[in-house]
Backbone:
């Protein structure tokens, strides 16, 4: 499969009264046509900021993209003018967000919000756009879809609102869908419905997808490849099976052991990770996970390891081999 | 109810707890136009030293149960006793005495601490309210002891809540709950606002404290994986009623109520191979409104195995196997 999006050495910072926030610190990855890539990490690790950076959604200032490129079908998104970017955003690359209540406009009907992008991007006539909007709502499983076109966002439940968001995102048949924690605000049974819907839509429309989440459980059920982020760095990249069966970065390993399992009997206490993620106000030096890492040694505190291949399709940024606890 | 319930005595007994919130209309003259039936007849017991989990989706009434049983809300009907004292009949000193023994840890570590108070004032407030220490010096010593107990640096005693991270704030809330030496703590989603790596820290702390002080917990949560880890027994709530109650392994390995089955099958499992082969029951539709809950079994409109009588008869709460209770016609 050809590569559809290639992000190289992306660095995003924010200037704040307290100092510079080092939000994204040089990440590189690629997305192949039709694949599902997951980006996993805890709050503040830079996963959303990195996505918003490549789509030009970072307010500048205070934000600043210090370096990097994001090549989409041969064109660098970071070099595009706002005008060019508008043609890509929503049409070629669509996004769904965590909180459907704040990402939908509360004073406009659902019809208006879906037809807007159709008219802007595809030049449909209003009549046609309304027709298509009805089809879209039906496709994402909203009961009585055509009648509900004239409803406002608050008249939908959380799960239904997320379906409306998905309908909006899919309106122009995008080739990439970026889903930023789309199920985090939802209950577990509704989350299962939405995950199933997104997987079905992705297959039907053969889109590529980047799924951003903190939930390692959800990722296991839907992604093909996974990237683990920590403090603005990608620390591990692997296929979904390798990541869960053979995690090689101490942070991934620690996260997986800190997770209780609903499908297993309790064997022991949870293994907790001491301390808290680093303050992003200081320029990173050494491995960002070193202060919390059981295996860290001298070199980890001085030199930040780059991503390095440890097996086919499996990369980690670590000086240590977690299987032996020795330096690699 | 079960072996444990007969001997020793349960610490907390909840008998047919009902809590309705009136819906009012009008500005000067308020008329009650309806009732939100948040909790509609819930009964359970908690044995001394155990952790009972209360799970369900948002709006099912689990937080209302927790708050009502500590008399933070007056109840509509029913009876709650904690340590052999009836909570909602108590007034004045007696109520104060119950509150001293029954505390709460809240969900949101940002909203549940007064931002203008120092850690010292927050943690020492229960000591002052209950008159537990002779003087200010003793109180200060006790606060230091409590902070160390929950793993906070005692040097931070004069800091304000905003200077702490989410996990640390939850530790402050825990220190406050422990200050009055309670027997029973309602933990209302204590970890759901925290990151994964911090959740394990707080859960381990709660377990250590339980061992050390022989605490009894009601652990309210929607994270079913964590509930299996921390709880001894688990109750599943749906729309204001408990539909199933069993020992954790019984419930997770052999759920009997169709709602429990659907809920458990929807829990994401961090194992790609297992996720691919797993049978899932995906429920259709949303949880109905508790203002006008469905007749008969409340789950019948979404239930994959509902029969005709499910919409007419309220299912009986029965013990289907030892210590395994369920309310369903089809089990």
Residues:
């Amino acid at each position: 499969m050809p590569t559809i999006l290639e992000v190289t050495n992306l660095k995003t910072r924010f200037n704040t009264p307290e100092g510079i926030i080092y939000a994204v610190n040089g990440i590189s990855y690629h997305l192949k046509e039709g694949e599902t890539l997951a980006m996993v990490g805890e709050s503040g690790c830079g996963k959303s900021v990195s996505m918003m950076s490549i789509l030009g959604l970072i307010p500048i200032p205070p934000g600043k993209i210090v370096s990097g490129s994001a090549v989409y079908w041969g064109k660098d998104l970071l070099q595009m003018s706002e005008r060019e970017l508008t043609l890509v955003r929503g049409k070629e690359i669509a996004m769904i967000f965590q909180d459907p209540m704040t990402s939908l406009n509360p004073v406009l009907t659902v019809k208006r919000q879906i037809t807007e992008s159709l008219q802007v991007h595809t030049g449909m006539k209003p009549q046609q756009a309304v027709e298509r909007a009805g089809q879209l709502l039906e496709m994402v499983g909203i009961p009585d879809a055509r009648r509900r076109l004239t409803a406002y966002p608050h008249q939908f439940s959380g799960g239904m609102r997320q379906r409306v968001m998905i309908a909006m995102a899919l309106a122009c048949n995008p080739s990439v869908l970026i889903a930023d924690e789309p199920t985090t605000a939802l209950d577990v049974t509704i989350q299962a419905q939405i995950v199933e819907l997104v997987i079905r839509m992705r297959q039907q429309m053969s889109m590529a997808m980047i799924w951003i989440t903190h939930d390692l459980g959800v990722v296991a059920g839907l992604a093909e490849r996974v990237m683990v982020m920590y403090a603005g760095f990608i620390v591990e990249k692997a296929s979904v099976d390798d990541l869960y069966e053979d995690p090689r970065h101490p942070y991934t390993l620690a996260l997986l052991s800190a997770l209780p399992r609903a499908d297993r009997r309790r064997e022991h206490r949870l293994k907790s990770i001491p301390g808290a993620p680093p303050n992003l106000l200081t320029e990173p030096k050494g491995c960002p996970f070193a202060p919390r890492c059981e295996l860290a040694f001298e070199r980890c505190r001085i030199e930040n390891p780059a991503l390095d291949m440890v097996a086919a399709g499996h990369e980690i940024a670590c000086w240590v081999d977690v299987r032996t606890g020795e330096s690699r | 109810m079960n072996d444990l319930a007969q001997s020793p005595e349960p610490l907390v007994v909840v008998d047919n707890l009902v809590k309705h919130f009136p819906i009012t209309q009008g500005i000067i003259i308020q008329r009650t136009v309806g009732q939100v039936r948040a909790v509609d007849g819930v009964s359970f017991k908690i044995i001394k030293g155990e952790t009972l989990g209360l799970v369900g989706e948002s709006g099912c009434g689990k937080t209302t149960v927790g708050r009502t049983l500590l008399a933070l809300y007056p109840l509509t009907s029913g009876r709650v006793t904690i340590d052999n004292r009836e909570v909602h009949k108590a007034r004045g000193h007696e109520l104060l005495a119950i509150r001293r023994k029954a505390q709460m840890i809240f969900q949101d570590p940002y909203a549940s601490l007064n931002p203008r108070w120092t850690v010292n004032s927050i943690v020492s407030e229960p000591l002052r309210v209950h008159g537990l220490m002779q003087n200010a010096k003793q109180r200060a010593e006790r606060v230091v002891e409590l902070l160390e107990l929950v793993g906070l640096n005692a040097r931070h005693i004069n800091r304000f809540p905003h200077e702490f991270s989410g996990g640390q704030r939850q530790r402050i809330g825990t220190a406050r709950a422990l200050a009055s030496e309670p027997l029973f703590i309602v933990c209302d989603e204590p970890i759901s606002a925290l990151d994964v790596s911090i959740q394990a820290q707080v859960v381990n702390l709660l377990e250590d404290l339980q061992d050390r002080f022989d605490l009894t917990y009601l652990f309210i949560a929607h994270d079913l994986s964590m509930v299996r880890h921390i709880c001894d027994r688990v109750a599943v709530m749906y729309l204001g009623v408990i539909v199933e109650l069993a020992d954790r392994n019984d419930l997770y390995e052999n759920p009997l109520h169709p709602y429990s089955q659907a809920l458990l099958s929807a829990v994401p499992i961090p194992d790609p191979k297992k996720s691919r082969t797993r049978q899932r029951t995906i429920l259709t539709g949303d949880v109905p409104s508790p203002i006008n809950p469905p007749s008969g079994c409340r789950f019948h409109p979404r239930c994959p195995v509902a029969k005709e009588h499910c919409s007419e008869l309220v299912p009986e709460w029965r013990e289907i196997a030892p210590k395994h209770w369920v309310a369903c016609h089809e089990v």
